[in-house]
Write a structure and sequence with these properties.
Length: 529
């Protein structure tokens, strides 16, 4: 006993002993899966080398996650609202009419996410060499305020980005979909939760991704090069500039999608790919309940914060600084620098604006753009004439943003939001005749239906998933070894998840608090007589 106290970590001296200890605590190890083989030069010879993806078995991952009593209780109790307000996916019409969730409300709601991640300098000489693809999932059964924690975002697969293009994203997702199909069956899957057997069913509810990743997952080509540029409807570029209600467009449906897919094997392949943007039938469509025409969620971070909002704000600033000369660009930047930002906004302070780029961007991050747009009326609003149409349309866009990013919505908001979007888009075309309606502006017209069907758009936002990337980036920089980096990252991540599962990190507390900062406290010594 004394010897153990003197050297408590002697049993963890080697990596083998550490792994053995983690395994005894329920570690879910990554599974190395061979995708194929390729010839690589080794000195003067060529060697046949295998190429791998690293998967986290879904059943074991869920079993580890649900073994925490806090998460298990949240999943089994549910959080549906009965007050006609929509706070999450479970309050939307899709959930209420779902073939699985309508009869089994506690079935597992798997939200899938995919993105490409550059772990090196994105503009360096080795930028693309170490680019990786990461797939995450999160349980929608967990209430939103707890779901935002990075600790509950689980890894599905990690693979080198070049292998996704070589072997196809469907092959990468094959083990995940095999597990999903088991959960979708009537008999479900038995999971050992803290020594007791519990039967679970579940399916994919929503796929979260940026536009490029959504097109790849859905079996679409890059829709910018297709005639139909929207994954939600059959819109063409001309209609995007003249029609601003979703009812005016023919939606993509399971039936039309299946009809187009059947023609891909024949002589109409090139026509279908060019006209409708469909190049294959996605493996996600093998699900009994999920389909890419219904579940590839719009992401308001990319479509609004990094798209429409930056686009219109830049056009507005060009108008007020160069055409009307109501303010100067240097004055605006001075206001940005000297504004007394609040505690929550100080870390998202906008960067200096130049307006010299030839694209639609202001070179701000998503959170910086959100901060800039909200505070722009306070920065320069007093210098804009009352009733100025360009300014009024910008304020109208801010109103739309407030509704779309809101944590709660209702059925009554949907028709009003549709009118706001239609009015804004019509005004935008009139006020900026030389500016085109880019696809990200068009995607906004579909948001009211998504709020009604799937709940608030902030619940399937990519922002928290992308925050998960920082763990892998910082880990890669600390390791400083990129030999089979995908395996290393997967193993370290699973060690961390094992640590979380046996500690108190998953416990959901009733009390919450906002951001905090360290305050120096000077202690005074007192003498007691």
């Amino acid at each position: 006993m004394d010897e153990e106290l003197r050297a408590p970590f002697r049993c963890l001296e080697s990596s083998y002993m550490q792994k053995k200890a983690y395994t005894s605590l329920g570690l879910v190890e990554p599974v190395q899966r061979e995708l194929g083989q390729t010839l690589k030069r080794r000195g003067k010879r060529f060697k046949l080398c295998s190429e791998y993806a690293y998967d986290i078995p879904l059943e074991k991952s869920l079993q580890q996650l649900l073994s925490n009593s806090s998460i298990f209780d949240q999943v089994m109790s549910g959080h549906c609202q009965n007050d006609n307000l929509f706070e999450d996916y479970c309050d939307g019409s899709i959930f209420k009419n779902h073939l699985l969730f309508s009869v089994n409300p506690t079935a597992l709601q798997v939200m899938l996410y995919y993105d490409d991640l550059e772990i090196c300098n994105p503009i360096g000489s080795r930028a693309k060499k170490h680019k990786i693809g990461v797939f995450y999932y999160i349980l929608g059964n967990i209430p939103p305020k707890w779901r935002s924690s990075l600790k509950v975002i689980q890894l599905v697969t990690i693979v080198r980005h070049s292998l996704i293009h070589e072997y196809g994203i469907d092959k990468i997702l094959q083990p995940f979909m095999e597990s999903i199909k088991k959960f979708e069956k009537a008999e479900g899957v038995d999971l050992n939760i803290n020594g007791q057997q519990h039967n679970f069913r579940g399916t994919i509810t929503i796929v979260c991704a940026d536009n490029l990743a959504s097109w790849s997952l859905g079996g679409y080509k890059a829709l910018a090069s297709a005639l139909r540029k929207c994954r939600f409807c059959m819109a063409i570029a001309e209609d995007m500039s003249s029609k601003f209600l979703s009812e005016e467009f023919q939606p993509r449906t399971r039936i039309t999608h299946a009809n187009h897919v059947t023609h891909l094997a024949g002589p109409l392949h090139d026509h279908i790919a060019t006209t409708y943007g469909i190049v294959r039938d996605s493996i996600l469509n093998q699900s009994q309940f999920f389909h890419v025409t219904e579940g590839l969620a719009p992401d308001i971070m990319h479509d609004i914060l990094e798209g429409a909002l930056q686009y219109e704000t830049k056009e507005l600033l060009i108008y007020v600084t160069q055409e009307r000369r109501l303010i100067s660009l240097s004055f605006l930047n001075q206001q940005i620098e000297s504004f007394p930002y609040g505690y929550c906004d100080s870390s998202n302070k906008p960067s200096i604006i130049t307006l010299t780029s030839h694209d639609h961007s202001l070179k701000q991050s998503a959170t910086q753009m959100w901060c800039l747009a909200r505070l722009l009326p306070l920065l320069v609003g007093e210098f804009i004439p009352v009733g100025e149409p360009h300014w009024e349309n910008f304020l109208l866009l801010l109103t739309i943003v407030e509704y779309v990013f809101g944590p709660v919505t209702s059925e009554d908001v949907v028709p009003y939001l549709k009118d706001l979007i239609r009015e804004h888009h019509e005004n935008f075309c009139q006020l900026y005749p030389n500016a085109s309606i880019i696809p990200k502006i068009h995607y906004i017209i579909h948001l009211p239906e998504w709020l009604l069907n799937f709940g608030p758009a902030s619940r399937y936002l990519c922002m928290r998933f992308e925050a998960k990337h920082s763990y892998f980036k910082s880990l890669a920089h600390r390791i400083k070894c990129f030999k089979n980096i995908e395996k290393t990252l997967a193993e370290h991540h699973q060690n961390l998840m094992c640590y979380y599962s046996i500690c108190d990190y998953y416990v959901f507390r009733e009390w919450t608090f906002g951001r905090t900062k360290l305050v120096l406290i000077v202690y005074c010594t007192c003498m007691f007589v």
